[in-house]
Design goal:
The complex is a heterodimer of chains A (312) and B (238). Chain A has 312 residues and is α/β, with parallel strands linked by helices. Chain A folds into two domains: 219 residues, P-loop containing nucleotide triphosphate hydrolases (Rossmann fold), CATH 3.40.50.300; 82 residues, Reverse transcriptase/Diguanylate cyclase domain (Alpha-Beta Plaits, 2-Layer Sandwich). In chain A, 36% of the residues lie in helices and 28% in strands. In chain A, the strands form three sheets. Chain A has a six-stranded mixed sheet, with helices on both faces. Chain A has a four-stranded antiparallel sheet with strand order 11-12-10-13, covered by helices on one side. In chain A, β1 and β2 form a beta hairpin. Helix content of chain B is 71%, strand content 0%. Chain B contains ten helices and no strands. The longest helix of chain B has 28 residues. Chain B is globular, with a radius of gyration of 19 Å. Chain B starts with 11 loop residues before the first helix and ends in a 7-residue tail after the last helix. The chains are: A alpha/beta (312), B mainly alpha (238).
């Protein structure tokens, strides 16, 4: 299943604010999304789901505009024909089988009974549910339910796929399969938006991320480029070494080292403003003290730290 | 794989059937559907009760209350179950999906009351009038209560007040005020007599006038409800 390049999906969100009573769920969001997988990151309550609900035409912005392929998506059948949504809530028509559930929803896209069933079966196979698709949903595990929910979002082959916390409740193996599926959907040229608060999962799916916190857009772009923006921010570094106190005393004298902290008997963590300078100085200092460095690493090397920097 | 047929109302018929089947599988629905015609049959054939009380029971009592039970929560139930997202993010007009759900809600009411109305009649003409009254009465009541379900949080209480207080009180008022009740028109259409105080009973006019009123209430309620669901944001309860 590959999408025609001429029908590439684009979403434009301009100056969008959304209030729920006195709560500002989204605040002046500007965002453009194209083909490929974009990770929508933020802690619970940050506004991710509200943003997806605006894109999927369930909510209307109080100010600003949302456009999906140039159309206002609110209650807009033309947009829904090209959009697949996996909602956050773990809710279904519980008495239905997975196959009947996905078939029924696919029929609302205008497919006949046989075609809808074939598409439902193909989508369920794609999420690894062939074996369990005739079980009533109420008898399914959380992971199976999650897969079924994703199947109903892709059964009609939409160019836009919105997945709200799609990996919730899945086991590690299932998670790996779904991560591969999301990547494949992106590689097929679809515009896929995946929301999550589990950062390493998003990192496994994509390097294009959007970070939201308190309803505001904190950062957007490639993780590497975002990281580059943070070069002037303090960088944490962990060194496992036999006599951490001695090394800490030597390193704190360096001008770019802001703080050191001994962790247990065999490690220290420090904060530097110049990672490269630290890497140049560290071997010499260790040799001078007769120390052997067992392990080096940075807790700041993953998306988690980037996320923490940007939201705090 | 073939291309889908796309129209804003495509799929609404299927959706009505899908939810009708779900409604019919619910505990209690089948009991209503079987018990009400059976009750009418026992009264008419077993105890030789005349057309009038059986017709009144079915049309004046059961049609509004069953319509309230099935129609009042037509979308609220899906809001509370948080399943409305699935239908409302499909390429079908929301008003069409609402109408489909309303038809699915009216289904069990019709399946219960139409056979009962047919049994209540004491001849083909009388049965036909009672059946017509049951169909149009169900349409009007279900549509009205469906609309109320979109406007108030607890449509059941409002509906009960409407059926048991408003309509009950107004039917006993001499003159034209009684014609402001749906029940007066359902009775008139079904050829049933209205209660009278001091010999004065409200005259709802001709049977086709009553049919027009019931259809009108149904159409206006559906149009208003369709407008509401098209404009309303989809905020599901947690």
């Amino acid at each position: 299943m590959t999408i025609d390049a001429a029908s590439v999906a684009t979403m434009r969100i301009a100056g969008v604010t959304k209030m729920f009573g006195t709560v500002r769920a989204l605040d002046e969001i500007d965002l453009e999304l194209g083909p490929g997988v974009t990770g929508l990151l933020g802690p619970n309550g940050s506004g991710k789901s509200t943003l997806l609900k605006l894109i999927s035409g369930q909510l209307r912005p109080d100010t600003g505009t949302v456009r999906v392929e140039g159309l206002d998506p609110f209650a807009q059948p033309e947009v829904f024909a090209r959009l697949g949504l996996c909602p956050e809530q773990d809710k279904f028509y519980e008495e239905q089988t997975g196959e009947a559930f996905v078939t029924a929803l696919t029929r609302l896209h205008g497919y006949g009974a046989r075609e809808a069933k074939a598409r439902a079966q193909a989508a369920l196979a794609r999420v690894g549910m062939t074996e369990h698709m005739r079980k009533p949903i109420r008898a399914m595990s959380r992971g199976m339910r999650q897969r079924t929910k994703i199947a109903q979002a892709i059964a009609h082959d939409p160019p836009i796929v919105l997945l709200d916390e799609p990996l919730t409740g899945t086991d590690p193996l299932g998670r790996a399969d779904l991560i591969a599926l999301v990547r494949a959907l992106g590689q097929e040229g679809r515009c896929v938006v995946v929301s999550s608060h589990v950062l390493h999962e998003v990192e496994a799916m994509t390097h294009q991320v959007v970070l939201v916190r308190y309803g505001r857009l904190r950062a957007q772009g490639d993780i590497g480029r975002l990281r580059a923006l943070l070069d002037d921010r303090p960088y944490r570094f962990r060194i496992e070494v036999g006599r951490p106190r001695a090394l800490a005393a030597a390193l704190i004298a360096l001008p770019h080292v802001q703080a050191t902290e001994v962790v247990g008997e065999s490690a220290l963590e420090l904060t530097t403003t110049d990672l490269m300078a630290l890497c140049r100085a560290l071997p010499g200092e260790a040799a001078r003290l007769g120390l052997v460095i067992d392990q080096l690493g940075s807790p700041d090397a993953d998306l988690e730290s980037l996320y923490r920097y940007l939201i705090e | 794989m073939s291309a889908p047929s796309r129209g804003r109302w495509t799929g609404a018929g299927f959706w009505a059937g899908f939810h009708l089947a779900r409604n019919m599988r619910r505990r209690g629905t089948l009991l209503w559907v079987l018990a009400i015609p059976l009750l009418a049959a026992v009264m008419r054939l077993g105890f030789d009760v005349s057309r009038e009380p059986v017709g009144q029971l079915v049309l004046v009592f059961l049609v509004p209350l069953m319509s309230l039970a099935f129609g009042g929560g037509v979308l609220r139930e899906e809001v509370e179950d948080q399943t409305l997202t699935y239908g409302f993010t499909r390429p079908v007009d929301r008003a069409a999906l609402y109408l489909a759900r309303l038809a699915a809600a009216a289904g069990p009411v019709l399946l219960a009351t139409v056979p009962a109305a047919a049994i209540a009649g004491d001849g083909p003409t009388a049965s036909l009038r009672l059946v017509t009254a049951a169909i149009l009465g169900t349409m009007a009541h279900t549509a009205l209560f469906g609309l109320w379900g979109l406007l108030v949080r607890r449509p059941t209480w409002l509906g009960l007040a409407y059926v048991l207080v408003w309509e009950q009180a107004l039917q006993n008022v001499p003159g034209w005020l009684a014609t402001l009740t749906l029940r007066a028109h359902v009775r008139n259409l079904g050829g049933l007599s209205a209660p009278s105080i001091g010999g004065f009973a409200g005259d709802p006019g001709s049977w086709w006038g009553s049919a027009l009123v019931l259809v009108g209430v149904a159409v206006v309620s559906v149009v208003l409800a369709g407008g509401i669901v098209r404009r309303r944001e989809l905020v599901l309860s947690r």
